[in-house]
Prior knowledge:
Alpha-D-Glucose-1,6-Bisphosphate, Chain A, domain 3, Alpha-D-phosphohexomutase_SF, phosphoprotein, A-D-PHexomutase_a/b/a-I/II/III, 12 helices, 5-stranded mixed beta sheet, alpha/beta, 2 domains, PGM5 protein, phosphoglucomutase activity, globular
Amino acid sequence: MERTPIPVLTVQTSPYEDQRPTGGGGLRRPTALFESQRNYLPNFVQSLLSSVDLRDRQGCTMVVGSDGRYFSKTAIEIVVQMAAANGIGRLVIGQNGILSTPAVSCIIRKIKAAGGIILTASHSPGGPGGEFGVKFEVANGGPAPDIVSDKIYQISKTLEEYAICPDLRVDLSRLGRQEFDLENKFKPFRVEIVDSVDIYLNLLRSIFDFNAIRNLLTGPNQIKIRIDAMNGVMGPYVRRILCDELGAPANSAINCIPLEDFGGQPPDPNLMYATALLEAMRGGEYGFGAAFDADGDRYMILGQNGFFVNASDSLAIIAANLSCIPYFCQMGVRGFGRSMPTSTAVDK
């Protein structure tokens, strides 16, 4: 039986003046604003899509993921419907919408996508009373540079309409390809639901010595670890990589179920909010501890007895021990990623 093509609609709207993305942070606002202000999310998504040159946009592939916070699935549906209407040919989405920011970057580079959209407000609280956000990554897997963010903002200030396929529905739970015939489109629009961890895990296998790490976690001189995913996106990664793949006991990982409100605590990996991890580490039983923020691109490291390792020192430790990491032994190193909290220790 022949399928009826899905209509592509053009919806009239009015611009907002407050949709300037803040660099790598994207657009971050109270969730209630996205839910209550008419077309607030569609406006920004249209501005984001329109910032990609039409010739590059037509038929291209983009990656979509979220940290699982409240409003994510509703937002993903809108992103999918608008991507289809704007000529994107294929979307790659993590199962149930879950993809960490590093995993989105990894997939963009792996499949040579045009970019990626991540629905997250980083370490900000979730739930109806929390915050929601939209980040855009470009073709190199990095956050949109200022020139792109400014282009999105300029478009948002004059936007009068957006394109959408409101009847398009995607099953985020089903792995594999889903195809949709759209009005006025010669080729079907495709959505591929992928395992949230697989591609990123394969990348890590090519970088680190998994056998050495497995021996550290399971061998005769094993170190006990404690990892807190803070009910954010990193839960499935921690379970799959550290426990299933590298052999750490299941009780090494805590708060590994992504929750829409992150269990009522801000998913902020610091000494104020990662209190369960801090208390466990202070007992002296564990030799290494770590916590992650909601979308998995920021961490906190603790040593035995709760010793705090700041980000500047952790980067310097990696830099001083590159010979232990197979990827850098093979490929060499071109430099170190500087940021404000990782500034001077690497020099020393």
